[in-house]
Amino acid sequence: MKVLARGRYTVAVEDRSKTAGFLLGHGSSRPMTLSRAASVGARSRRVTLTVGKWFVETAAGGPKSSFSVR
């Protein structure tokens, strides 16, 4: 599992799917949408990663990838 330092990051997403968005989540909180299902193209967003376990996944319910923040 990957480990990142806590702090502010710019997350860049290049979405090529017309059917699945991209989500970033932490713990049991509602995940934030970085790209919507109908959005195709590149975009970026500044996020603050706090200590704990984080995950990324597609909004279509694909596999989750997780990482830790310390």
Care to describe what's here?
This protein has one domain (2-69): Immunoglobulin-like. 0% of the residues lie in helices and 60% in strands. It is built from no helices and seven strands. The protein has strands spanning 2-4, 7-15, 22-26, 32-35, 41-49, 52-58, 65-69. The chain has a five-stranded mixed beta sheet with strand order 1-7-6-3-4, with no helix packed on it. The protein has a two-stranded antiparallel sheet with strand order 2-5. The radius of gyration is 12 Å and the shape is globular. The model has no long low-confidence stretch (mean pLDDT 89).
From the helix content, strand content and strand pairing, which structural class follows? mainly beta
Q: Treating each run of at least 4 consecutive H or I residues as one helix, how many helices?
A: 0
Oligomer: single chain
Q: Could you tell me how far the N terminus lies from the C terminus, measured between alpha carbons in angstroms?
A: 13 Å
- The gross shape turns out to be globular
- Level-2 CATH architecture: Sandwich
The gyration radius over C-alpha positions equals 12 Å
CATH topology type: Immunoglobulin-like
Q: Output the strand order for the largest sheet.
A: 1-7-6-3-4
- Classify the beta-strand content into a percent band: over 45%
CATH class (first level) name: Mainly Beta
- Unreliable parts: none
Task: Give a count of the beta strands, DSSP E runs of length 2 or more.
Answer: 7
What's the helical proportion of residues? under 10%
Q: Give the overall pLDDT as a whole number.
A: 89
Order of helices and strands: EEEEEEE
